[in-house]
Design a protein that fits this description.
The protein has 235 residues and is mostly beta strands. The protein is 8% helix and 55% strand.
C-alpha cells in the first residue's frame, strides 16, 4: 500500500498535466475559384499568414479545444473565428495563401505577421505588434491601439497605405525608387525620414507632422503615431 498511493498520485499528476497542456488542431484546406477574401478573427494569440506559390489556402489553428473555432465559407469568402468565451484561451493561426488573397485580420491581443501578400490588407488590433514583410499590395490599412508596426515592401502606383498606432512606433522600409505622397503625423514630434528627407519635394513641416512628395508622387502613404516614433528607411 505504501508504494501504491505515491504511484497513483504520480499518475494522476501526469494525466492532469497532459490535459492542461494538450492542444487541439483545426486544419482545413480551401480551394477558391478566384482570388479569395480571408477573414481571421482572434481573441488572444498569434496570427501568421504567408504567401506561397499554390492555389490553395491551408489553415492550421492550434487551440485548447476545437469547439472554440468557427468557420464560414461562402464561395471565395472564407472566415475563421476564435469564439469569445468567459475565459478565452490562447489560439494561434498559421496560414498559407496565394499571394493575391485579400486579408481582413482582427486580433485583440497577440503578434500579427503577414508576408508576401499582394491582395488588399486590413488589420485592426487592440494590443499587437504587426510585421508586414515582402508586401506588394496596392491597399494596406493597419490600426493598432498599442503596439509597433513594421512595414517592409513595395508601394504600388495609385495605391493607398495607412499605418496608425496609438501607442507604438512605425518603422517603414521602402525601395529608394518608390514614388509616393507622404503625410506623416507624430504627436510626440519624433519623425525621422532618413535619407528620404533630401528627396522630398513640396514638403511642409508643421508642429506635429511632415508632408511632401517623393519622385513625382503616386501612391498615398499616411503614417500616424500618437505616442511613438515614425522611422522611414531606404533599401
Amino acid at each position: 500500500m505504501r508504494l501504491t498511493v505515491p504511484l497513483v498520485l504520480s499518475a494522476f499528476i501526469c494525466l492532469l498535466s497532459f490535459s492542461i497542456s494538450a492542444d487541439s488542431r483545426f486544419e482545413r484546406t480551401y480551394t477558391p475559384q478566384h482570388p479569395a477574401h480571408l477573414t481571421i478573427s482572434n481573441i488572444n494569440g498569434s496570427i501568421r499568414v504567408a504567401a506561397w506559390d499554390k492555389k490553395t489556402i491551408v489553415a492550421q489553428v492550434k487551440a485548447a479545444s476545437l469547439d472554440s473555432i468557427e468557420e464560414r465559407v461562402m464561395g471565395d469568402d472564407i472566415t475563421i473565428t476564435s469564439k469569445l468565451k468567459l475565459r478565452p484561451r490562447r489560439v494561434d493561426f498559421e496560414i498559407s495563401v496565394p499571394p493575391e488573397t485579400s486579408l481582413t485580420i482582427k486580433n485583440i491581443m497577440g503578434e500579427i505577421e503577414l508576408r508576401g501578400i499582394a491582395g488588399h490588407v486590413s488589420v485592426t488590433s487592440i494590443g499587437s505588434d504587426v510585421h508586414l514583410t515582402k508586401m506588394s499590395s496596392s491597399s494596406v490599412d493597419v490600426l493598432v491601439t498599442s503596439g509597433d508596426i513594421v512595414f517592409d515592401g513595395e508601394l504600388r502606383e495609385g495605391g493607398s497605405y495607412s499605418l496608425q498606432s496609438m501607442r507604438g512606433d512605425l518603422d517603414v522600409t521602402l525601395p529608394s525608387s518608390t514614388p509616393f505622397n507622404l503625410n506623416a503625423r507624430a504627436l510626440s514630434e519624433n519623425i525621422n525620414l532618413g535619407s528620404f528627407v533630401s528627396n522630398l519635394t513640396g514638403s511642409s513641416r508643421g508642429p506635429k507632422g511632415v508632408s511632401g512628395t517623393h519622385l513625382r508622387g503616386g501612391s498615398r502613404l499616411s503614417l500616424t503615431a500618437y505616442t511613438g516614433r515614425i522611422l522611414l528607411h531606404k533599401k
